[in-house]
Write a structure and sequence with these properties.
Blueprint (H helix, E strand, L loop, with lengths): L1 H58 L3
Length: 62
């Protein structure tokens, strides 16, 4: 019976460690996602400006 109780304690400790690790990973993923969104947004804005400049040059507006 003691072996079973110690096995359960080990399992509970392992589950607690896994929960902690998952919380840390969620924070890391969230920060990566925010950084990726900023980079993507900057790229979209720069492409829009470049296409606008190309249109201005192509149509001879300036």
């Amino acid at each position: 019976m003691a072996n079973l109780e110690s096995a359960v304690e080990f399992i509970q400790r392992d589950i607690a460690e896994l929960k902690t690790d998952l919380k840390e990973m969620r924070g890391d993923i969230s920060s990566i996602r925010t950084t990726d969104l900023r980079i993507l947004f900057r790229a979209m804005i720069s492409v829009a400006f470049e296409l606008g400049a190309l249109m201005v040059k192509g149509f001879g507006w300036i």
